[in-house]
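Bug #77: duplicate submission created two jobs. Keeping one. Sequence:
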Amino acid sequence: MTIELDKQVRTTAIASIQRYFDQNMEESIGNVAAGGLLTFFIEEIGPAIYNRAVADVQERLQLRLSEIDLEVHEEEFAYWRKYDQAGKGRRS
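Kept job's structure:
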């Protein structure tokens, strides 16, 4: 699966890389070089981040699924219990 960024996200990311170089490195980085660096990070590191995110979502969904019975559970054979508890049992 190829990880792709929207055009606006890619443009913003490239500008962020350029700003990082301007503020933290001795040399600036041009638009083309920043784009190449971004592509490298997406292709090389992006899948590891993506896979971790998928694993995190799976873990959260499994937790939610394991608790769903608590949210939607209905008591079985409760008709007579409501009368017994109220002390109004029906007598024939």
